[in-house]
Amino acid sequence: MSTLARPDAFDWTLVRSFLLVLEAGSLTAAARRHGLHQPTLSRHVAELEAQLGAPLFERTGRGVRATPVALAMADAARQMRSASQALSQAVAARRESLSGTVRLATSEVAAFYLLPEVLVTLQQAEPGIQVELVVSNTVSNLLAREADIAVRMVRPAQATLVARQLAELPIVPCAHRDYLARHGTPQRPEDLARHRLIGFDQDDTILRGFARMGLPLGREAFALRCDNQLAASALLAAGAGIGFAARYALPLLPGVVPILPQIAIPPMPCWLAVHRELRGSALVRRVWEHLAEAIPQVLARRELRSPVPD
């Protein structure tokens, strides 16, 4: 029985090292020419010789001399190298030519204040990818294919979804400097009861937060009530009163500054989610990878630009 390894058992890494040594004439020259370690090349050649059951090189004072077995397999090895290069080029070309549409769901605030920068860099990196941005504060059902990917502030509960938490988003009480100049800056949480507050209409999240702080305020404590967070942000920017906002949005609300740093509001988690089956799509996976990398980068830049508490 032949001791030669099956052709499909050859490790391309070993064959590549064999070619480098063959063409350079010595282990030292091959290592120097290609920026590799000589012991690594020597080990690869020895492993390939063990697989073949025959020596490939004879050591000489000036380097190595190819054996008949090495010369016989040289052309086939070069064909393997050409095929490997062609495969790499095909993969690179495929990556460069990704095209198609990905449907991305997110909340109003994230769509307005967070994702524009992220999607600009995606378009620059992948001009062939089109994005349909689904803006809604209701959690889109990825299982029903209402979206391909979702950026959400709650953890997806479905077991068939792949999810990754990207960040914790601080929420801060804040107001425009013009409002604070007119009405003063509150120094303690209980001072808020004497100010014009901006809060939700039907949603009781802020009221429950006040209750946990020992401030049992009622709905009537809000001089301005609105469940639309973009409208609430506009009211803050106009100097209408004191409200609450994600800190990453403040650099995009000129003049709005955080106040009362002693109030510890639980941060919102930022989750990226996709259906497990769609994760196998090269197109969806590329957008997922970009979002996972770019969102934390945008948030980090916003932290550097975020105004300090008054």
Sum up the structure in keywords.
single chain, 310 residues, alpha/beta, Arc Repressor Mutant, subunit A, D-Maltodextrin-Binding Protein, domain 2, 3 domains, five-stranded mixed β-sheet, three-stranded antiparallel β-sheet, 9 helices, disordered N terminus, DNA-binding, LysR family transcriptional regulator, DNA-binding transcription factor activity, WH_DNA-bd_sf, sequence-specific DNA binding
What does this structure look like?
Helices cover 42% and strands 21% of the residues. The chain has 310 residues and is an alpha/beta fold. It has three domains: 7-96, Winged helix-like DNA-binding domain superfamily/Winged helix DNA-binding domain (Arc Repressor Mutant, subunit A); 100-168 and 268-305, Periplasmic binding protein-like II (D-Maltodextrin-Binding Protein, domain 2), CATH 3.40.190.10; 171-258, Periplasmic binding protein-like II (D-Maltodextrin-Binding Protein, domain 2). Helix 7 (205-212) links the parallel strand 8 and strand 9. The protein is elongated. The termini are far apart. Pfam families: HTH_1, LysR_substrate. Keywords: DNA-binding, Transcription, Transcription regulation. One of its GO terms (biological process) is DNA-templated transcription. It comes from Ideonella aquatica.
Chain-wise SSE layout:
Layout: H1 12-24, H2 27-34, H3 38-52, E1 57-60, E2 63-66, H4 68-96, E3 100-106, H5 108-125, E4 129-135, E5 149-152, E6 161-169, E7 171-176, H6 177-183, E8 197-199, H7 205-212, E9 222-225, H8 229-237, E10 242-246, E11 256-258, E12 268-275, H9 282-305
Parallel strand pairs: 3-4, 3-5, 8-9
Antiparallel strand pairs: 1-2, 5-12, 6-12, 7-10, 7-11
Helix pairs in contact: 1-2, 1-3, 1-4, 5-9
